[in-house]
Amino acid sequence: MKEITAKELERKRDAGEKLNIIDVREDEEVEMGIIPGAKHIPLGQIPERLNELNKNEHYYMVCRSGGRSGSACDFLIQNGYNVTNMVGGMLDWEGEVE
């Protein structure tokens, strides 16, 4: 599984790269702040919402600490998606949130 640190992802975002970020936390966690532009799909809804993801795109998966996003990556990789896990999750994110 490919991994990226929160700081590396923040640098890419700050450099203006087009990023597809999927936040797999629960609703109440996302209410505390989400990376601007990230799409919220709770982990349990990923299988039924695959139609919202494009296999030709690359996605960065985010959760609170990196565990659930790692599970999402495992599932998506098995289904043919190109994904990278943000290790450390939002606990390590120091960039802006909305």
UniProtKB/TrEMBL annotation:
Alphabetized Pfam families for the sequence: Rhodanese (PF00581)
Ranges of residues in domain Rhodanese: 15-98
Annotated transmembrane regions: none
PANTHER family: FAD-DEPENDENT OXIDOREDUCTASE (PTHR43031), SULFURTRANSFERASE YTWF-RELATED (PTHR43031:SF17)
Name the UniProt record assigns to this protein: Rhodanese-like domain-containing protein
Database matches in Gene3D superfamilies: Rhodanese-like domain
Matching SUPFAM superfamilies: Rhodanese/Cell cycle control phosphatase
SMART domains attached to this UniProt entry: RHOD
